[in-house]
Amino acid sequence: MPQSIRVAIEESSQTAEARRVARKMAEDLGFDDTRAEKVAIAVTEVCTNILKHAERGEILVTAGDGSDLELLALDRGPGMANIEQCRRDGYSTAGSPGQGLGAILRLSDSSDFYSIPGKGTAILARWSAPAAEKSGPLRIGAVNVSKYGQETCGDAWGVEQSREVSTILLADGLGHGYEAGVASLEAVRTLHRHPDLGPLALIEYCHGALRSSRGAAVGIARVDRAHGKITFSGVGNVGAQIYSGASSGPHLVSVNGTAGHHTARPREFSYPWPNDGLLLMHSDGLTTSTGLESQPSLALHDPSLIAGVLYRDFNRGQDDATVVVAKAT
Ligand SMILES: [Mn+2]
User: Domain 138-328, CATH 3.60.40.10 — does that match?
Assistant: First the structure.
């Protein structure tokens, strides 16, 4: 499962830490020296921008088995008034060398930017990993960050995709830290053991599999694009909502309880899945108002960038935090 490492960027010495983290992840994914160095230079570039234009922000570096390497740079600074102009190297305001978006474009395999004047800037840069799994009817982006000061994240998420069907699971282990992570990872393993099961059956399997663990809140969504249908089953506090493009659709309902311990009788709900459907799932490390309503144009962006911006804007700062965004390819 891809996990995100967060580095707060508030002073220039933290740039070196961010570079080290990103380079290590690149090497772990099997990147050669040239590509690992591109990642490191891009990290320096985004950190410099944060310190210069926003004073503070954070870097998330995300990678894992079967995933690409992703760098998210998030700040709540003044934002860019004209992002197209800032893309070009050499653009400068008041003699500064510009925000270096051109450099990010050149150094990464793909990138995306989202900036609203007065609300901040979010930059995504991605490098493909040789072993990354590309196929599937939905593109999925996520951030999965542990509580400040905790090494292990108590949240976990996973996905199984066939040609037509995508099943996405998000689990939030009770409390936080290592034991919470054991519980949530067991829920993810349950999905991988039974990739063809529907959400209700999977929730029931999770309930059994988590019995000896601390337990977890678990939400499972299954999107069937061919039939235009999404099915959801959840136990405990996992936020889930469907959008049609940027227009908000139904919240997906979970029953009370904790998988592995006591739960109300699990239920399964079905809704239409629009052609331009977008699924947002998040743990309670983000507020209940998490959504795209306040910034509709965000829905047009790369799912990883959407997840990053939602994390930046709705993260409570007191818990593990996970956001998963899935949209049509
Ligand atoms: Mn939580």
Answer: yes
